[in-house]
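This week, work through this protein record:
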Amino acid sequence: MKYIILFLVLLLFSCSPQGRINRILKNNPHLIHKDTVKVTDTFDVIVPGVKLDGHIPISKIRNNPFTFNEENLSIEVEIKDDTLSVRGECDTLIIETEREILVPCETPIFHKPRDKLSWLNIVAYALSFSFFVLLIVAIILVRQINKRV
């Protein structure tokens, strides 16, 4: 019963896989590959709209009246009696901008495990296992012989 309780205590208080990886990487820093990752960040830039109203006496303007239209800006010019009326409006712009950020990161180096053992590996494992079994049998036989003598 003591062994079962000891086994359960060890099982419950053992490290999580993440804890084991952290400990291995702490003790073996050569297993960490330092690299930079390119992250694309997209954000919106809001350019607020502009409105403009003004009245200018016509005697102060030397050139002919004009009309100006471009993308989000429109200016309307109107002449009434001796006054030039200018109305301008600029819509709100939302410009989507992208930027690339290089972020340093550390990743562990993983190797692909073997899919199958070759017949040579199986023979080597079988021979080493049989060697250790024969070694244990030989030690037991030597002890038995020494006890009889």
